Fold this sequence. Notes:
Elements: E1 12-19, E2 29-35, E3 38-45, E4 53-60, E5 67-75, E6 90-97, E7 103-109, E8 120-128, E9 137-143, E10 146-153, E11 162-169, E12 176-184, E13 199-206
Antiparallel strand pairs: 1-4, 2-3, 2-5, 5-6, 7-8, 8-11, 9-10, 9-12, 12-13
Amino acid sequence: YPPSSLVGGEDSIVQVEITNIGYADAGPFRLDMYIDGQYEISWDYPGLPAWIYSELSVTITDGLFAGAHNIQFIVDATEVVSESNEGNNTRTETFTWTGTPDLEVTSIYAPSSLVGGEDSLFQAKITNLGYADAGPFWLDMSIDGEYSYSWNFPGGLPARNYSERSVTLTGGLFAGTHYIQFTVDATEVVSESNEGNNTRTVTFTWTGTPDLEVT
């Protein structure tokens, strides 16, 4: 039994009922749990009397990514109990978790030295903090409020993953303070759980000296 609402990234309590439908008591056995075919956890039972059932709850911490997932329980997983029917020890149910992506400009990297008139390499890290994959989107860069460059992410960005993009400012900038801004999902096509963290602006200072010339 799952909760009525399964949300990606949130704790989810799943309950399983084990029944001895035979007419003899069962000795000690083990119950295993799998999620999407991957082993998760086991419980040791001291046994189970005839025509008696037992219920057990387990919390899937932080939930799962949005989408359909297979939850499987195997009773007498080590096959130590001799049963009249060995074919009903496994049950698999498919449940669907809901969720939305959450794109964020996590950080902006710059060289340790920024000199006016010299090439400057910048890098932005984009992270999907959500528990659902993000579809295609654009990343924009602006300098001092003026549009500078864009990157297309045609494949989107999977849940809980990041990607980095780099750009070289050819010829650098004039000496002084400049504002470098990156905006993810610049065209606002991705529906997100948090639309307020798509833009990051960092202030950097270029050094330099004048060079007067009678031209």
